[in-house]
């Protein structure tokens, strides 16, 4: 799976990256899963379809009733058609420079940021719908006015979201301009119970697979493949012990392509088949 550098692939002038940039993303495929190196923070105003994103220790799924703000960095995201024939998402990219100016001008509170906050979910209310339409109108304006118009519209949007979401949104904005790294252990432990492949987890750590394996072995004293397999099987056993789900309901969630492989691995680990786990 190739890495897409966004928004660079959408910008015609390779020598210039504007502080604000709008792009209409559309697709007709049923499912597109992408590795993305996001070079700017981004609003993703989903109009038609569904979207799931993974970033380090976080994953979130949204539909057309919600939009996202995504922190720049390495993302895995999956875009799916819903009932319509075309997936449509309006993207608004913004630089740290313009964000810093907004924060200095409008946000007086200073928040302690202990954890990385990679995304923020927005409800698509009447204002957001009107705002998205206004971005389309701006796109038809003369080029010499575009920069000023987008700057005004960006400030308007941010003020609205500060008013609507209050301190949680202010804190999120401040987290976007703080350089922070997610420790390998915290990130890996957050993905134990996902069905992401090892190579995909390495990408989210911004590492090559070989570097990820080396650093993982140094920290965990065991190979990542064995550690993840053991942890996922332990969680699968806990899930089955609750008595509400059958092995056939959960094997995909724990990274197995079929029930047979899951059952063999489970029995090798615990000495009993998944169907023989006593329930509480």
Task: Outline the fold blueprint.
Elements: E1 3-6, E2 20-27, E3 31-38, E4 41-48, E5 50-55, E6 58-62, E7 66-70, E8 73-80, E9 87-94, H1 96-106, E10 119-123, H2 126-138, H3 143-165, H4 167-175, H5 184-190, H6 198-204, H7 209-220, H8 224-241, H9 247-250, H10 259-270
Can you describe what's shown?
The chain has 280 residues and is of the alpha+beta class. It folds into 2 domains: 3-175, Sandwich (Jelly Rolls), CATH 2.60.120.810; 184-276, Homeodomain-like (Arc Repressor Mutant, subunit A), CATH 1.10.10.60. It is built from 10 helices and 10 strands. It has helices at 96-106, 126-138, 143-165, 167-175, 184-190, 198-204, 209-220, 224-241, 247-250, 259-270, and strands at residues 3-6, 20-27, 31-38, 41-48, 50-55, 58-62, 66-70, 73-80, 87-94, 119-123. The strands form 2 sheets. A 5-stranded mixed beta sheet has the order 1-3-8-5-6, covered by helices on one side. Helix 6 crosses helix 7 (209-220). It starts with a strand and ends in a 10-residue tail after the last helix. The relative contact order is 0.11. The mean pLDDT is 86.
């Amino acid at each position: 799976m190739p890495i897409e550098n966004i928004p660079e692939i959408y910008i015609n002038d390779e020598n210039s990256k504007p502080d604000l940039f709008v792009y209409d993303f559309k697709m007709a495929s049923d499912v597109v899963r992408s590795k993305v190196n996001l070079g700017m923070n981004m609003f993703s105003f989903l109009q038609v379809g569904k979207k799931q994103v993974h970033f380090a220790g976080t994953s979130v799924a949204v539909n057309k009733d919600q939009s996202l703000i995504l922190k720049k960095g390495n993302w895995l995201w999956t875009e799916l058609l819903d009932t319509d024939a075309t997936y449509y998402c309006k993207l608004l990219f913004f630089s740290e420079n313009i964000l810093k100016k907004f924060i200095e001008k409008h946000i007086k509170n200073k928040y302690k940021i202990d954890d990385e906050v990679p995304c923020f979910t927005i409800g698509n209310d009447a204002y957001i719908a009107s705002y998205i339409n206004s971005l389309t109108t701006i796109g038809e304006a003369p080029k010499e006015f575009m920069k000023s118009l987008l700057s005004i519209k960006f400030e308007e949007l941010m003020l609205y979201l500060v008013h609507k979401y209050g301190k949680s949104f202010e804190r999120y904005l401040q987290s976007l301009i703080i350089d922070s790294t997610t420790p390998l252990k915290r990130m890996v432990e957050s993905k134990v119970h996902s069905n992401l492949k090892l190579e995909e987890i390495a990408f989210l750590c911004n590492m090559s697979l070989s570097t990820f394996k080396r650093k993982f072995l140094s920290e965990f004293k065991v190979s990542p493949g064995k550690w993840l397999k053991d942890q996922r099987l332990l969680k699968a056993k806990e899930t089955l012990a609750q008595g509400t789900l059958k092995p056939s309901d959960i094997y995909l969630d724990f990274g197995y392509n079929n029930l047979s492989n899951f059952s063999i691995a489970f029995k090798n680990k615990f000495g009993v088949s998944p169907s023989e786990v006593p329930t509480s």
